[in-house]
């Protein structure tokens, strides 16, 4: 066999091995959030407005048990029903969950500043990076001030890593999230006549 044929065969083998390694890496990255964690509880959100459809979020109690417990309690009591996506920044995230000032049909001037009647939650930061579909808890400048508001990522935002508690990731319905009405960039994403979560249930 000629040297050229041996060299060509070696290149082919390297390419196949590299491709396989990349596939395994990508599969592992996805399964680390989708296949390896215990399924559920899932947050099922019916969205209406410019976006219409169902978004299913896989909550991660093994990562943020206190945050997930509070989110599921609020959902079970119907606290999230009718709450708007008050702050939506194209290419970044869609924020919702202000059960105090964020209800559709009400005065939304203070939307984004409210919280529930439950206590604020101590930070449960993790090493899960903020990527498309990740769901995190909103908070004020204090790391231990998260309460009811959360956000869904449109894209990667590494500057959030380790600074905001990750509570889950979108299992299905990212196409609905992508259609949520965007806010004014000059007003920090504040949305005029925002889309809303009609119902939020735990499964």
Report how far the terminal alpha carbons are from each other: 62 Å
Structural class assignment: alpha+beta
CATH topology-level name of the largest domain: Cyclophilin
Number of helices: 3
Number of strands: 9
Biggest beta sheet summary: 9 strands, antiparallel
Radius of gyration: 20 Å
What is the total number of structural domains? 2
Helix-strand sequence: HEEHEEEEEEHE
- Under CATH at level 1, the class of the largest domain stands as Mainly Beta
What low-confidence regions span 5 or more consecutive residues with pLDDT below 50? Answer: 1-32, 34-38
- Indicate the CATH architecture of the largest domain: Beta Barrel
Into which percent range does the helicity of residues fall? 10-25%
Identify the overall geometry: globular
The portion of residues forming beta strands comes to 15-25%
Strand order of the largest sheet: 3-9-1-2-8-6-7-5-4
Mean pLDDT metric: 87
- Going by CATH, the homologous superfamily of the largest domain would be Cyclophilin-like
Task: Describe the SSE topology.
Blueprint: H1 3-34, E1 42-48, E2 53-59, H2 65-76, E3 83-84, E4 87-89, E5 93-96, E6 134-137, E7 150-153, E8 166-172, H3 174-179, E9 196-202
Antiparallel strand pairs: 1-2, 1-9, 2-8, 3-9, 4-5, 5-7, 6-7, 6-8
């Amino acid at each position: 066999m000629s040297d050229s044929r041996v060299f060509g065969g070696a290149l082919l083998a390297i390419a196949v091995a590299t491709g396989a390694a990349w596939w395994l890496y990508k599969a592992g990255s996805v399964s680390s959030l989708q296949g390896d964690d215990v399924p559920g509880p899932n947050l099922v959100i019916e969205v209406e407005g410019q976006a219409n459809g169902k978004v299913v979020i896989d909550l991660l109690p093994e990562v943020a048990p206190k945050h997930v417990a509070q989110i599921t309690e609020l959902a079970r009591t119907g606290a999230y029903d009718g709450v708007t996506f008050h702050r939506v920044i194209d290419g970044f995230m869609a924020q919702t969950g202000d059960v105090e000032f964020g209800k559709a049909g009400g005065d939304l001037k203070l939307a984004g500043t409210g919280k529930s009647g439950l206590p604020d939650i101590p930070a449960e930061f993790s090493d899960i990076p903020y990527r498309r579909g990740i769901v995190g808890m909103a908070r004020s400048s204090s790391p231990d001030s998260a309460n009811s508001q959360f956000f869904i990522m449109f894209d990667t935002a590494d500057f959030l890593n380790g600074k905001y508690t990750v509570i889950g990731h979108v299992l299905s319905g990212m196409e609905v999230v992508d259609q949520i009405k965007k806010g004014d960039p000059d007003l920090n994403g504040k949305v005029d006549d925002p889309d809303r979560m009609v119902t939020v249930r735990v499964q």
